[in-house]
Amino acid sequence: MLFRSNAFMKIRGIHHVKLTVSDLARSKKFYSKIPGFKVVAEYPDFVMFGVGDANVGLTTHDGKLSSDRFDELSVGLDHFAVKLASEVDLLEAIAFLDSVGIEHSGIKASSNGVKIVVFRDPDNIQLEFAAKSK
Fold it and tell me: How many C-alpha atoms does 28 have within 13 Å on its Cβ side?
């Protein structure tokens, strides 16, 4: 019996998110700039970044894209957020984004006590830096 009726599998968090991009070299260059994103695997049509305890993969699916621009209003991924330790880190994130010319929202407060900075990658995929208010 593989399933133990009075025990539960132990989920430890997210292992990886894989994003489809239109230009792997361009996206690799973009994500490589983000502090904490380190290449951990690379193949002709795929690159994986280690990001804290998780991974973010990029692929082009060998040119079989149905569109060349991301749209969060379609079924699937809306965005993903990278967790930062503090609001001070959010200020550092803004300084970083400004230094490399990436447009962003500035710090926005959400109703659950998390503050975020929103920005987009070259394919229009929404990314966020997020930190819990103390």
Answer: 15
